Each structure stands twice: as structure tokens, then as C-alpha cells.
């Protein structure tokens, strides 16, 4: 096809797309023009209610410790933390360099994703949880939703196998596990990677009690 013909085809396609966009905008403007004062007031009220609910959520999240990356003092406190927040990322750590690298990234993500609680727990001082949740490699991130361990990020294998991974890479992995929301999203439809058997924290407690009887 000659160059002139190609340019003509491209120009027609661009004009077609531009016309479609213009038509869509015209439709939206026309729809707004058809709204009366009562409709506009209803829209405004609905928007205000949405903003109010979000503000209440944010206030509650902050009161629970969201937006900060904090350490859980003991195994006992772990249970109250995961029951209080719908979404929790718990870093099981020990005093070593890889865990300090993970700390750095989680501290940043805690500030960016207020919808999720980010905490850490010393695995060596938490033998009960380490055994029940089968924590072996450190660092390990337990992805907890509605008080159930839903997923794990074990070591750095899923982050390029090196301690030089970026915060964005970890963010993407946690978003894939649906424990954080990316900007502009209220939910994620990504398939979960690495199917994990869900273990209820409450169930683990009951099982431990049964074992001791």
C-alpha cells in the first residue's frame, strides 16, 4: 500500500475514534442537562454519604494502627490484631539482614496502603504460631484476611530471588494476593498465585487446646 493511502487510512481511523469520544461526551452532557434540581441534590447527597463513610473507615483504620508498621509484642496480641482488621500483612522475622530489607519495604507500604494493617512478629519468640502456621524460612509474610491466613510470601523467591527487589515489586505481589488495593481500585480480580490451604487462627487455637487435653 502506498504511503499516501496508509496515511489516509490512519487519518480516517483517528477521526472515527475522535467522533466516538465526542459523541460519548455529548451524551453525558445531555444526561446532565436532563437532571432537575432534585436529581442533582440526590447525587450530591449520595456523594457526601460515600465521602462520610470513607472518612469513618479511615478514622477507624488509623485508630487500629493502620498507616504504621509496628511490632506485635507477643503471640497473644497477634490474635487480637488479626481479628480487629479485615486485612493484615504479618512479617515473621528474626534479627538478620534479609528481614531488615523486608522491614524497609513494609514500612513504606504501611504508609501507602492505609486499608491494610502491617505488623511484624519475632518468629523465634513465637514458637506456637511458627509451628501452627508452618513458618520455616525467614522472612515470611503471612497474608491474613478475615482472621484467616490466605497466602504467604516466603523469602525473596517471588521477588526476583535477591534482596535488591523494589517496593513496587512487593506491592504488586501483595496486590495479587488481594490484601492491598492499588490506586483507584476497591477490589482486585487478579487470580491468586500459589494456592495455599487456608488455616483459621481461631481453628489453630482450638486444635492446640485439643492436643493439650
From TrEMBL:
Residues 189-198 have a biased composition (Polar residues). InterPro entries: Thioredoxin-like_sf, Thioredoxin_domain. Signal peptide: none annotated. The keyword Coiled coil applies. This is Thioredoxin domain-containing protein. Residues 75-156 form the Thioredoxin domain. Residues 189-213 are annotated as: Disordered. It comes from Clitoria ternatea. The keyword Coiled coil applies. Keywords: Coiled coil. PANTHER family: THIOREDOXIN DOMAIN-CONTAINING PROTEIN 9. Residues 18-60 form a coiled coil. Residues 204-213 have a biased composition (Basic and acidic residues).
Amino acid at each position: 500500500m502506498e504511503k499516501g493511502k496508509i496515511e489516509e487510512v490512519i487519518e480516517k481511523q483517528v477521526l472515527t475514534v475522535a467522533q466516538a469520544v465526542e459523541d460519548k461526551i455529548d451524551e453525558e452532557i445531555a444526561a446532565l442537562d436532563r437532571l432537575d434540581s432534585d436529581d442533582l441534590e440526590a447525587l450530591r447527597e449520595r456523594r457526601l454519604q460515600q465521602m462520610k463513610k470513607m472518612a469513618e473507615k479511615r478514622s477507624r483504620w488509623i485508630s487500629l494502627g493502620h498507616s504504621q508498621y509496628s511490632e506485635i509484642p507477643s503471640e497473644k496480641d497477634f490474635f487480637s490484631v488479626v481479628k480487629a482488621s479485615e486485612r493484615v500483612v504479618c512479617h515473621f522475622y528474626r534479627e538478620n539482614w534479609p528481614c531488615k530489607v523486608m522491614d524497609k519495604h513494609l514500612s513504606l507500604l504501611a504508609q501507602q496502603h492505609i486499608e491494610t494493617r502491617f505488623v511484624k512478629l519475632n518468629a523465634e519468640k513465637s514458637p506456637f504460631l511458627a509451628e501452627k502456621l508452618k513458618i520455616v524460612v525467614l522472612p515470611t509474610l503471612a497474608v491474613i484476611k478475615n482472621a484467616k491466613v490466605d497466602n504467604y510470601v516466603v523469602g525473596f523467591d517471588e521477588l526476583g530471588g535477591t534482596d535488591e527487589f523494589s517496593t513496587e515489586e512487593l506491592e504488586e505481589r501483595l496486590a495479587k494476593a488481594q490484601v492491598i488495593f492499588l490506586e483507584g481500585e476497591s477490589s482486585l480480580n487478579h487470580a491468586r498465585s500459589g494456592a495455599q490451604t487456608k488455616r483459621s487462627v481461631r481453628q489453630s487455637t482450638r486444635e492446640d487446646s485439643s492436643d493439650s487435653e
